[in-house]
Amino acid sequence: MKKTLLLYWAPGGSVELAAKAICEEIGTDKVEISDVASFDISKLNAYENFIIGSATVGAEDWRDTKDNNKWNEFFVKTREFDFSTKKIAAFGLGNQILYPEHFVDSLGYMKRQVEERNGKLIGAWPDEGYDYTDSEGTANGMFFGLALDHDQQPELTAVRIEAWVDLLSEEMDF
Ligand SMILES: Cc1cc2nc3c(=O)[nH]c(=O)nc-3n(C[C@H](O)[C@H](O)[C@H](O)COP(=O)(O)O)c2cc1C
């Protein structure tokens, strides 16, 4: 069994709800969960699997948000961290009706940050069943991780999580 850590930002909304549901699906005894701001970065190397969750907030640039996005701080602090031996998967929350041109852009940001640290995202997810026009979080009909639209398709959140965790379990050996 590999050690798995789920990190998410922000607390108190749909990202946290999805983060907890993913942990339930994996089995809460098999995964540790923390919001990214509370996590002690010096412990990062103790884990082999990482699941990272974010929301896209800010239609033009998701980092341009009034809220402090703690993912930015995390990636500044881990600039020198080498993710090459780790399994990493991302999930992203968005709203395809209100932001069809920037749907789950944060998945693209996550991918770039992970790749800059020699990592690679697993758990790409087909974009069938979503209605959007553009996204930084997709290429060739696949999102770079699990896309969730809990605003517009709340009834699909649980089934998507279930199928995605199944997919991850093939590579993550929870
Ligand atoms: C100010 C604001 C800007 C947003 N911009 C985007 C966006 O560009 N793309 C997108 O897919 N969703 C966007 N959303 C939708 C959120 O990502 C979505 O509601 C998400 O579930 C919020 O997660 P939270 O409840 O954990 O904060 C935006 C929401 C807000 C409030």
Summarize the structure.
By secondary structure, this protein is of the alpha/beta class.
What can you see in these coordinates?
- This protein has 174 residues and is α/β, with parallel strands linked by helices.
- The chain has a single domain (4-172), classed as Rossmann fold (3-Layer(aba) Sandwich), CATH 3.40.50.
- The chain has helices at residues 14-26, 70-77, 106-116, 154-172, and strands at residues 4-8, 32-35, 49-55, 87-93, 121-122, 125-126, 138-139, 142-143, 146-148.
- A hairpin with a 2-residue loop joins strand 7 and strand 8.
- The protein is globular.
Gross CATH architecture: 3-Layer(aba) Sandwich
Share of helix, binned:
25-40%
Coarse morphology: globular
In round numbers, the mean pLDDT is 94
In CATH's first tier, which class applies?
Answer: Alpha Beta
Task: Give the SSE order as H and E letters.
Answer: EHEEHEHEEEEEH
Give the domain tally.
1
Proportion of beta-strand residues: 15-25%
The N- and C-terminal alpha carbons lie at a distance of: 5 Å
The distinct ligands, each listed once, are: flavin mononucleotide
Keywords:
Rossmann fold; globular; binds flavin mononucleotide; alpha/beta; 174 residues; 9 strands
Question: What order do the helices and strands come in, and which of them pair?
Answer:
Layout: E1 4-8, H1 14-26, E2 32-35, E3 49-55, H2 70-77, E4 87-93, H3 106-116, E5 121-122, E6 125-126, E7 138-139, E8 142-143, E9 146-148, H4 154-172
Parallel strand pairs: 1-2, 1-3, 3-4, 4-5, 4-9
Antiparallel strand pairs: 6-8, 7-8
The structure holds flavin mononucleotide (FMN).
Flavin mononucleotide (FMN) is lined by residues 10, 13-15, 55-59, 62, 93-95, 99, 102-105, 150-151.
